Structures are given as structure tokens and as C-alpha cells.
Amino acid sequence: MPPRDEPTSPPAEDSPPRRSYHVEALAKGLRLLALFSEQRPSMKLTDMAAATDIPLPTAFRMAATLVTEGFLEQLADGAYRPAPKVLTLGFAALRGMDLVELADGPLRRLAATTGQTVNLGTLSDDRVLYLIRLRNNDLVTANIQVGSRLPAVSTSIGKVLLAGLDDDRLADHLGETSFAGATGPNAIRSLTGLRPALAEIRERGWAVQDEELAYGLRSVAAPVSDASGTVVAAVNVAVPAMEFPVARLLDELRPPLLDACREITLLLGGR
Asked: Which fold has domain 19-83?
């Protein structure tokens, strides 16, 4: 007779995951990897342990294992940073996403038409995860790459995606720290200040970022929906603020942006 805490047969494919299948050691290792970002490219072991509530000896063993497996590397000062092998996971995931593949052509045409930087992103917790970036070299105010994660509350893509959430889901995604990463003079600093902006975005179907993320940067974004009508991503066109007042941004760049988003939505089976 099998032990009571072990399943007698594999779970059905459509059954919900069970707690007994959770591998805590693997989860801890993944939490360590998830700490790193563009703003935090390397970390000391003590900071990694504190940020994840993992005991220091356990964090040391986890980090050593990740180094051995090629996912972390240790610097001369003892700090850790992601190793190149991590990139293979990210790019493999991106290549497997229909969204990225289908959006590539319309976004390249949008970048060629406007001559400006074009981005595609999706929501990841309280951040925007950038999946495609076609950069105009004149845009020097933001160092963003594919895989970058920026505060959703301060980006045009993020505000479009947040506008698609109901109040409960919005509260689940956002906390006090969600408003801490923006440096622009017009950054929104609280959920109370954000809600009216999201209501307006919901009504009109597009969003503007006016020097909220960083000084000198503006953008306009619109949503991309799938066959179910769910907003799955957003696209923006980003410009230098000195060259594009908000009126010019909307007059010249919003129409081709909306056309590109409609095209991608149709490719995804949406309407």
C-alpha cells in the first residue's frame, strides 16, 4: 500500500495543481534568479537572502548550484549576477510566443513609417515586460532592452494594460513600491492618482506617457487583444519630448500606432 502522502496515479491533465507537487528547493532557486533586473544587475549573497527570506546558508547552497549549472556567475567582489545561460531560457520562451512572431511584421512597418522607437510589452506583476524593441538611435533617454521590466504605472504600455484590469485585480498587481521606480517630473505617485487616468484610458482606448518614466521621454500606446477579446499586450511609439509635444505625438503617431495594433489583433484572431 503506497504512503498516504504520495499520489497513487498521475494527476489528470485538466486537474488543478496539488500542493504536494510543489518543489520548494526549486522555488527558492527561481526566487533568487528573479531578483535580478536592469536596475539591480548584481547582488551580494546577504542581500539576496534578505530579499527572499531564505536563510543565508540555504541561499549560499542555492547560489553555488546556480553557478555550477551556468545560470549565475560570481564576480571578483563576491557578488552574483545572471550568467549568459539565463538568456537562452528567455529567448526560447520569446521564440515560442505567437504574439511576438505575429507582431514582428506590423511593428517593423510601424517603426519604418514613423521613424521612431517602437515597443511591445505585456504585464508582469506590477511591471511591463518588454518583448519587442525596435529602437531609433536618437532616443537616448531610456536604456531599455528586450527583457527589461519597468514600472507599469509610469509607462504608456503599462497604463494601457492596467486599464484593462478591474479594481480587485488592479489592487492585486499594485502596491506602495509600484510607484517608486519612476524618475520623471510628471510621475504618478499613488493608486489614488492613477485611477482617474486609467478610467480615461479605458474610455478612449489609448494612453500617453508624458515625462513620467524619465525626463525627456514621451510615448503613446494602444492595446492588442486576442480572439477572446482579452488585452494581452500593448504597443507604444516612444519619442524625445523636446521634438514631440503631446499634440504632435497624438496627431502624427497615434493613427499609425492604432492601425498596427488593429493589424496585430486581427492576426491573433481578435476583432
From this structure: Arc Repressor Mutant, subunit A (1.10.10)
